[in-house]
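Run log, item B.
One chain of 97 residues. Sequence copied directly from the ordering sheet:
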Amino acid sequence: MRPQFAFRGDRFRYITYYGLRNVAELYNIQEDPGETRSLIADPRHQSTAREMENRLYAMLSQEGGMEIPMNKPRGSSQNKRWRERGDKKHRTFQTRL
């Protein structure tokens, strides 16, 4: 599951999904309460989407939400390589799909 962040106003809800493919959605929650039709690609709503995106990231920045904490996993983890203390070599993260 990808991390998602959302900003909701009285009329619109803006959602962005963070990950391999950054995707955003915009819904008119008054006319489409079930959020079935995203307006993100509609040229008439581009300024609304930009404004809500800016407000979302300003709020996240103000509240410290722009830093995603990483905690060392509990137990064994075969798909991550953590740099040990004093180790000068860079180890890359590996993912399994």
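Observations after the first pass:
- The longest strand covers residues 12-17.
- The CA atoms of residues 10 and 29 lie 8 Å apart.
Flagged for discussion on Thursday.
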